[in-house]
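Re-running NADH dehydrogenase [ubiquinone] 1 beta subcomplex subunit 11, mitochondrial to confirm reproducibility after the cluster update. Everything else is unchanged from the original entry.
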Amino acid sequence: MLQSQQTLRLARVGAQLGGRRLASHGAPQFNEPSGFLFGEKPPAPGQKRVKESWENIWYIGMFGSMAFAVVMLYYKPDNGVESWALREAKARMEARGEKYKYEPSESSSSS
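Result of re-run:
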């Protein structure tokens, strides 16, 4: 019973609005394809393309941040598990008085 009342109420509201959909915002809008790159017509022969005011800022920001990321990745500290385990093993072996580098003894040489 409650559900049918809600359905009737919604139907009345829809009829008052003239059956329009409020969220559709009219007909679909899109830019028709023109065949030109980014919709820009090429300049006439002998003329240069005029940049817009935001383009230089975008180039500096985009490529500058990429260069910064490359530098930061190059100098990134090695915090991997294997590196930590190697440093820990070396420290523990040095604490016990053992050598962590292999050095062949004279008696093991094959002569």
